[in-house]
Specification:
heterodimer, A: 586 residues, alpha/beta, Glutamine Phosphoribosylpyrophosphate, subunit 1, domain 1, Rossmann fold, 8-stranded antiparallel β-sheet, 7-stranded antiparallel β-sheet, 17 helices, 25 strands, 35% helix, B: 418 residues, Spore Coat Polysaccharide Biosynthesis Protein SpsA, Chain A, UDP N-Acetylglucosamine Acyltransferase, domain 1, 2 domains, 8-stranded parallel β-sheet, 7 helices, 17% helix
């Protein structure tokens, strides 16, 4: 997973435009970065290790440039391994997202032909392959033939100083082309382009674009000309910058009331359509990875409790081993914010082979999963930049709740629940509540380990809450089903061990309070998240009862806790170590 | 600037590819003369006049292209040399004009340089020139620096004025006709006129680095094709092309409108496939193959380094280093042998004289409208004329005149009933 940005046009600050684009894409990977611009008949490069942050580039004026922010796969995090990579003549520069599975064979052949490699990356074979092809053909077909010889799922953007063109080709990760006034852009994500133009082309798999004076589209592998059709993006640049907030994560937490209201007010007809699919399917499965997997698990509980319907859940990467019984009547509901998660794409490919129907719920129009699905629903949450997912989770659970109520014909009821929930979330993110949460975050940030318990729909809440704390504050935290504690983990509770307890106003309340008492009697410190204070709570955070919307509101508290723990510990909440926003490698 | 293209000559050495004027042989979807005109237009020439013979085939062909609608034509009724050809357009000439042959596909850079040189010193007459090892075959220049003092046509050994020959691209002035009138008319009257003119006026030569492809013998068409492919072939596949399953396209490949590629076909560039052509299942078209429009390549054929004019039909078989004239039809199983069994250089018979082509890989050359039966074997370097009929299973190892039926008989066929 990496961020790609390219520019060709009338302005001669290509380097600055590319760098600015990379900053907006930094959530896609941030262990190193580089920019390359055209200078006469050559390309010059500047590369650095680390985050882009407020970096500036020291490159000459140019009207053509490409750049890359990297999340390493092959080769360590060094300047040499950072993209763009050049050919021997320094006329071709390549940035790449994906893995060239056969790069060792290709590299051996190219070395034999006298090409000199500087990095340890798989990517570097690409400019040299193109250089080799350029000996007997033009730029665009050289890229085509090079791309066709790569194995694996890849997206590449290639700059040629001689023809002053950029070629973008993909069969994996996303690439979006922006059409401006006398200037053209290419990026991994539309949010990096919207500032410049809202007219875009979502490059499909096995398509290639030649971006020079205008845009030409070609099919892959053969290179046949295709009709160029652009689309208009209807959201604005503001959404993808931090604005008044210091981090994307807190900004995105604050956007959640809007996200919930949007779904409550606009999604009914889409929801009814999907509900119809679920009714007709013989066996429905929710799959997702990470936060989406917990949203999927919440779905199983919600469907059982509200719709009285059994829906299976699997962590997407495990679904491979659980899917042997899929038939053409099965329905897979895939949850993914980015729509690119390889762990989700893979089982979907196999499910497709078996003829099962796929319903994708993603946040990214035109993403891989979006395109492979038979039916689609977009989360409409706007770009989520912070690596730790917040608003996308809330959007997923909102949609699942609507589905469950729609299946029993209670569309109006859920609309009201969601609108109330939006108000409650609004209250939770207000300064007054946040001040209380900050105090608790300070206490929790000093803990060695934390336990979170919940029952019923609150059990996935416990898992998701623990994940948030782990992701951004790195404090070891375990989410558990309330009843499971006494079957082992309780042995870890000692004096002052913090334990967060979800006690919403539902059928689980009585039992979970008993579990809290069990912990407290072993010295644990209880943090209650509930509509009502209880004697057993050492600390209490009020989440008003908004019926089944409470399962979302209580998560917002966990998001805030995790965020302020990270702040307390001086960590970068947007870009946790070792993580990338969308994971396109296995 | 005005350019006169002299395209009325005959070219007997190009048989069997000389049914029409040689500049009408097609490469990359257009006659060779079209490529020359494109070069002239790119060099900034504004007015072009083509001198053709009375059949007016060039006019007929070029008029199909909107791009060439402003070109003027003049007819030279008899092939009486260059002076006579220029006389045919005398009334259309400006004071200064360029004279060029229609196969001069590399003219762009030369003309640009010539115009530059003429502008610098206000030189009215410039002749392109190049070095040669065999002065006895050409018009050789007598020089003082770059000033031309005279031209000696095919000098005897020991009498060569220099090793620099006239190439055939001239920048001239109309005043030349004053001298032309003084000269007795014969095949080389133009060269004589020039020599006369040079005695009184300033003429300069412009030395070219290399000679560029020419077209005297049939096999030189391949050099022309290679030159054009290298310089002007673009990788482009029209949106209307139908592409079957598992097609492999690689390298610089142009595929025109309405082309159909059936399953498992392989196209390896550089290659040109003209509009409406069909490439059958499992066929391979590779390395400098030029297939003009509306041709049909049946299943399981291999075509390498060849030129197929329009509407050529072939089926399974091998076609290497060969040229097939328009409307030729070739039966299945026919093979062009393009390498001698002993791997020696290949000889062809041109105008009755055996000529070493200097090539170790050369197939056959077939004129227009000829039909070749199934399972024929065509030996390296042979020529088959136009409108011939070659019977099935025939071994062709000699040239075949135009309009000939040529077939093998099978004398002994044994049939037994059990």
């Amino acid at each position: 997973m990496c961020g790609i940005f390219g520019y060709v046009g009338k302005q001669n600050q290509a380097a600055e435009i590319v760098l600015e684009g990379l900053k907006l894409l930094e959530y896609r990977g941030y262990d190193s970065w580089g920019v390359s611009v055209k200078l006469d008949q050559n390309l010059v490069v500047e590369k650095h290790v680390g985050k882009i942050g407020d970096a500036k580039v020291n490159l000459p004026d140019s009207t053509l440039g490409i750049g890359h922010t990297r999340w390493a796969t092959h080769g360590g995090v060094t300047e040499k391994n950072a993209h763009p990579h050049l050919d021997c003549n320094k006329t071709i520069a390549v940035v790449h997202n994906g893995i060239v599975e056969n790069f060792q064979e290709l590299k051996a052949e190219l070395v034999k032909k006298g090409h000199i490699f500087i990095s340890e990356t798989d990517t570097e074979v690409i400019p040299h392959l193109i250089e080799e092809n350029l000996k007997h053909e033009g730029f665009s077909s050289s890229v085509r033939d090079a791309f066709n010889s790569l194995k694996g799922l890849n997206a590449i953007v290639v700059a040629d100083a001689v023809s002053r063109e950029i070629v973008a080709a993909k069969n994996g990760s996303p690439l979006i082309i922006g059409i401006g006034d006398g200037e053209l852009f290419v990026a991994s994500d539309a949010s990096a382009i919207v500032k410049h133009t809202k007219e875009v082309i979502f490059l499909k798999d096995n398509e290639m674009a030649i971006i020079g004076k205008n845009v030409q589209l070609l099919s892959l592998p053969e290179g046949k000309k295709l009709e160029v059709k652009s689309e208009k993006i209807n959201w604005s640049y503001e959404v993808s910058t931090k604005g008044k907030y210091s981090d994307f994560m807190i900004k995105e937490i604050h956007e959640q009331p809007i996200v919930i209201r949007n779904i409550a007010e606009n999604y009914l007809s889409q929801i009814q359509k999907l509900a119809e699919q679920i009714k007709n399917a013989k066996g429905t499965f929710f799959i997702g990875a990470g936060t989406a997997a917990y949203a999927a698990l919440a779905g199983t509980y919600i469907f059982s409790k509200i719709a009285k319907k059994h829906v299976n859940t699997s962590v997407a990467s495990e679904f491979n081993y659980l899917e042997d019984f899929l038939t053409k009547d099965s329905l897979i509901i895939a949850l993914s914010q980015s729509g690119e998660t390889i762990d989700v794409v893979e089982p979907l490919n196999r499910a497709k082979e078996k003829g099962s129907k796929i319903f994708a719920i993603t946040n990214t129009l035109g993403s891989t999963i979006y395109r492979m699905a038979d039916y689609n629903m977009l989360l409409g949450a706007g770009p989520e930049k912070a690596v730790a997912s917040t608003k996308a989770y809330i959007a997923k659970v909102s949609i699942i709740l609507m589905l469950a109520y729609s299946l029993i014909g209670q569309d109006e009821k859920i609309k009201n629940i969601l609108l109330q929930t939006a108000d409650e979330v609004q209250r939770l993110v207000s300064e007054k509540t946040v001040d209380e949460i900050k105090k608790i975050a300070k206490v929790l940030s000093q803990a060695k380990n934390i336990y979170i318990i919940g029952r019923g729909v609150s059990y996935p809440s416990a898992l998701e809450g623990a994940l948030k704390i782990k992701e951004v504050s790195y404090v070891p935290t375990e989410g558990l089903a309330g009843g499971e504690l006494k079957h082992g983990t309780i042995a870890l509770i000692g004096k002052g061990t913090p334990c967060i307890v979800f006690a919403p106003q539902d059928e689980t309340r009585e039992s979970i309070i008993s579990n809290a008492i069990e912990i407290k009697s072993r010295g644990g410190m209880i943090f209650g998240i509930s509509p009502k204070n209880e004697e057993v709570f050492d600390h209490f955070i009020e989440v008003k009862d908004v019926d089944s919307g409470s399962y979302m509101a209580q998560i917002v508290v966990m998001q805030l806790l995790a965020y302020y723990m990270a702040i307390e510990l001086g960590l970068d909440a947007d870009k946790p170590r070792n993580l990338a926003k969308s994971v396109t490698v296995k | 600037m005005q350019a006169i293209i002299l395209a009325a000559g005959k070219s007997s050495r190009l048989w069997p590819l000389n049914d029409c004027h040689k500049s009408l042989l097609r490469i990359m979807g257009k006659p060779i003369i079209g490529h020359t005109i494109d070069g002239l237009l790119r060099a900034g020439i504004e007015e072009i006049i083509v001198v053709e013979d009375s059949k007016k085939q060039i006019e007929e062909q070029l008029k199909k292209y909107p791009k060439y609608k402003d070109i003027k034509y003049a007819v030279q009724t008899e092939a009486l040399g260059m002076g006579d050809a220029l006389l045919a357009v005398k009334d259309l000439l400006s004071d200064k004009f360029l004279v060029i042959s229609p196969e001069r596909i590399d003219c762009e850079e030369i003309v640009k340089q010539m115009l530059l040189k003429s502008g610098e010193k206000n030189t009215k007459t410039i002749l392109a020139a190049s070095k040669t090892d065999s002065p006895s075959l050409f018009g050789m220049m007598k020089l003082d620096g770059d000033k031309i003092l005279g031209i000696v046509e095919k000098p005897e050994k020991g009498k060569e004025p220099s090793d620099i020959k006239v190439v055939g691209i001239y920048l001239l002035e109309k005043k030349l006709f004053d001298y032309y009138q003084k000269v007795k008319k014969h095949q080389y009257d133009f060269e004589e006129t020039l020599s006369l003119y040079m005695k009184e006026s300033d003429a300069r030569m412009m030395l070219l680095d290399s000679e560029g492809p020419s077209l005297k013998y049939p096999w030189q068409l391949f050099d022309m094709q290679k030159y054009l492919f290298e310089k002007y072939l673009k990788a482009e596949i029209d949106p209307s092309v139908k592409i079957g399953k598992n097609i492999n396209i690689e390298g610089k490949v142009f595929i025109g409108k309405g082309v159909k590629l059936f399953e498992n076909a392989v196209i390896k560039g550089p290659a040109y496939i003209g509009d409406g052509t069909v490439i059958g299942n499992g066929s391979i078209v590779r390395e400098n193959a030029n297939i003009e429009s509306n041709s049909l390549i049946g299943a399981l054929a291999e075509i390498a380094r060849s030129n197929f004019q329009e509407n050529v039909h072939v089926h399974s078989g091998y076609f290497g280093d060969s040229v097939f004239g328009k409307n030729t039809k070739v039966g299945a199983g026919t093979v062009t042998a393009n390498i001698r069994v002993d791997r020696g250089e290949i000889f062809s018979t041109v105008n009755g004289v055996k000529v070493n082509t200097g090539k170790k890989s050369l197939g056959c050359f077939v004129g227009e409208n000829t039909k070749i039966g199934v399972n024929c074997s065509l030996m390296p370097g042979i020529f088959i004329g136009s409108n011939c009929l070659i019977g099935p299973k025939t071994l062709v190892s000699e040239n075949i005149e135009n309009n000939t039926k040529y077939y093998a008989t099978f004398e002994k066929i044994i049939k037994k009933n059990n």
